[in-house]
Design goal:
heterodimer, A: alpha+beta, Rossmann fold, OB fold (Dihydrolipoamide Acetyltransferase, E2P), 2 domains, six-stranded mixed sheet, six-stranded antiparallel sheet, B: mainly alpha, MetI-like fold, 12 helices, about 75% helix
Chain lengths: ~375, ~270
């Protein structure tokens, strides 16, 4: 059990072509027992951050502190951490039991205690019947469990997970995700979880750290990151299907601030308008925040249906709106046909405005 | 059908080309002296005899030559593996400045003709008191064996998923501990294969052995066997018997290596 503090972590990989900044100035405090996810597209620096915490990589500058103690210079084995790898990294020449025991053996834990702990982990993860098998004789889910067991058995201060579910098939992944959540409830160890799957991050975490190009974009609870994205990148990365983005301009008119793009004019909510930002801007709205309204409703935007997709309990409608394409999410019962004209209503309370058009365009609130 | 015939025909030709000298060697060693030179030659001995083998052990110092060779080869193989494996691991895994250039230099050293090395080595070894010593000869063989082991094992280590070592490091192992506990067990096929190659190289080596060892009691097989050839007479039966016995370890070794070369090449398997 430990708190983790990352203090202005910076990592450059030098190559002949120049330096690649894998991580820029990452500062973060993680509470004891917290489940934190680092999420972002590949190459965003999330794995580098995790490897620095593990001691497998040395930061170019900055510090890692566990419980206030600087451990930046310590070897991985002196950090009291455990890690689950994407590839599971089970030792192929050892049986499941030996895999579980290895860390205890290396730390000189006496035999009786080892056996007791192995038995306890086996019971907890229901892998006792597999003890004498080799990793190659296990299924993906079983390997995953053994890898978790090997990490758990040592009672680490911090538990690091590097995309542990991404080698599993979709159904098993959902199942293991739930198990992982239950496991964290049970052991209450600080867990740092790296994933590119925003849904995993959303469902498992106390807090999410969204990263892009080595820079932390936003830290917050899943709720915050979803409903109050700090910039356009976060807004588009979190949530499936992605938030709809319409590029246009902000201009004052008749004492109000208006967002306008070809065919669309939307009044800016008062809170955002107070900031007085004008000029190029992007309007974001989630597929579930667009509603189909009766034609003629004041403020409704006319549009044409392009494609309609049924996704089980809901439908996604791709709708052309004056040259923009937006996705609207409705219950499955709402049937629309391609070519049909509809009227769209945007919930003004749920609009997101970003100043500028790039992915780092900051939210106007 | 015709295609199979052609392939088998070609394979048979190749086999004859490669195996005939071995066959002739073995068969000649089992012929009596009078039959060795008969024209036309006999394909199988008319009278099978072990007289050359008896002679080899009673009248020559073949046994000692054999043991000397064995000792030198085992020593040099062991040292080459110990040094080469650590070097290969460092080249494959550690962040060492200029390791690419170093790796290429190692390959270059391996390509360097031994004949060019032997005179400087002789001068150096004489000053160090390493001539006429099995240790000295073993060390000289390292000039070839270490680059070879490093070159092969480096690729071998690179093919082992790095996650395994990192898992071991986190589990509490030191670098060397991870190498010993986790990496080497994965690399066993490669170690055996390169070890056998290094052994065979030393076993067959003639020039260094001839020049660095002049003490009769310390001679190894290849130069030792040359003494069966004299200016006036060559005892072919004896040479063939000695050659057959000297080839046996190699034949056995290749019997072993075949299996490991195949498993060695198939190693990997990231998901364990």
């Amino acid at each position: 059990m430990a708190t983790v503090r990352l203090d202005r972590l910076h990592k450059e990989f030098r190559s002949i072509g120049g330096a690649v900044h894998a991580l820029r100035d990452l500062t973060l405090d993680i509470a004891d027992g917290e489940f934190v996810s680092l999420v972002g597209p590949s190459g965003c620096g999330k794995s580098t951050a995790l490897r620095i915490i593990a001691g497998l990589e040395t930061p170019t500058s900055g510090r890692v502190l566990f419980d206030g103690q600087d451990i930046t210079g310590l070897e991985p084995r002196d950090r009291n951490i455990a890690m689950v790898f994407q590839s599971y990294a089970l030792y192929p020449h050892m049986s499941v039991r030996q895999n579980l025991e290895y860390g205890l053996r290396k730390r000189g834990v006496p035999r009786e205690e080892r056996e007791r702990k192995v038995a306890a982990i086996g019971a907890m993860l229901q892998i006792t019947p597999l003890f004498d098998r080799r990793p190659r004789q296990l299924s993906g889910g079983q390997r995953q469990r053994v890898a978790l067991g090997r990490a758990l058995i040592r009672d680490p201060a911090v538990f690091l997970l590097d995309e542990p579910l991404s080698n599993l098939d979709a159904k098993l992944r959902v199942h293991m995700r739930a198990e992982l959540a239950a496991l964290h409830q049970k052991v209450r160890t600080t867990m740092i979880y790296v994933t590119h799957d925003q849904l995993e991050a959303m469902t498992l975490s106390d807090r999410i750290i969204v990263m892009n190009h080595g820079v932390m974009q936003q830290v917050g609870t899943p709720e915050e990151v979803y409903s109050r994205p700090a910039n356009r990148f976060v807004a588009e990365f979190i949530g499936t299907p992605s938030m709809n983005m319409i590029e246009g301009t902000l201009r004052p008119e008749g004492g109000r601030l208006l967002f306008s793009a070809p065919g669309i004019t939307v009044p800016v909510p008062p809170a955002a308008a107070r900031q007085g930002t004008t000029g190029q801007a992007t309007l974001g709205i989630r597929p579930e925040d667009i509603s189909l309204v009766p034609p003629g409703t004041p403020g409704a935007i006319p549009a044409q249906v392009t494609v309609s997709e049924l996704a089980g309990a809901e439908r996604f409608h791709f709708i052309a709106l004056n040259g923009h394409s937006v996705i609207v999410r409705t219950p499955a019962a709402t049937v629309l046909h391609p070519g049909e004209t509809v009227a769209l209503g945007l919930d003004p309370e749920r609009l997101h405005l970003f100043s500028g058009a790039g992915e780092d365009a900051a939210a106007i609130r | 059908m015709l295609r199979a015939l052609r392939i088998y025909g070609a394979a048979a030709l190749l086999l004859i080309f490669v195996a005939f000298p071995l066959y002739w060697m073995a068969i000649t060693s089992l012929k009596p002296q009078t039959e060795v030179f008969r024209v036309p030659p006999t394909w199988l001995p008319e009278r099978w005899t072990l007289e050359h083998y008896v002679e080899l052990f009673l009248l020559t110092d073949f046994g000692r030559l054999f043991l000397n060779s064995l000792q030198v080869c085992l020593m040099s193989t062991f040292m080459a593996l110990a040094v080469g494996i650590l070097g290969a691991y460092a080249l494959a895994r550690l962040k060492v400045r200029g390791k690419e250039a170093y790796g290429r230099m190692v390959l270059l050293a391996y390509m360097f003709p031994g004949a060019l090395l032997i005179i400087p080595l002789l001068l150096l070894f004489r000053q160090l008191g390493l001539t006429n010593s099995h240790l000295g000869l073993s060390l000289a063989y390292l000039t070839f064996a270490v680059p070879f082991v490093m070159w092969v094992m480096r690729d071998f280590f690179a093919s082992i998923p790095i996650d395994l070592e990192e898992a071991a490091l986190i589990d509490g192992a030191s670098r060397l501990g991870a190498l010993w506990d986790v990496v080497l067990p994965q690399a066993v096929p490669g170690i055996i294969a390169t070890g056998i190659f290094a052994f065979l190289f030393a076993w067959n080596e003639y020039l260094f052995a001839l020049i660095l060892i002049s003490d009769e009691a310390l001679r190894t097989l290849p130069p030792g066997m040359m003494r069966f050839v004299s200016t006036t007479d060559t005892n072919w039966g004896l040479i063939m018997a000695a050659s057959t016995l000297a080839t046996l370890p190699m034949a056995l070794a290749f019997g072993l290596i075949q299996r490991y070369l195949v498993t060695g090449l198939g190693a990997g398997g990231v998901k364990g």
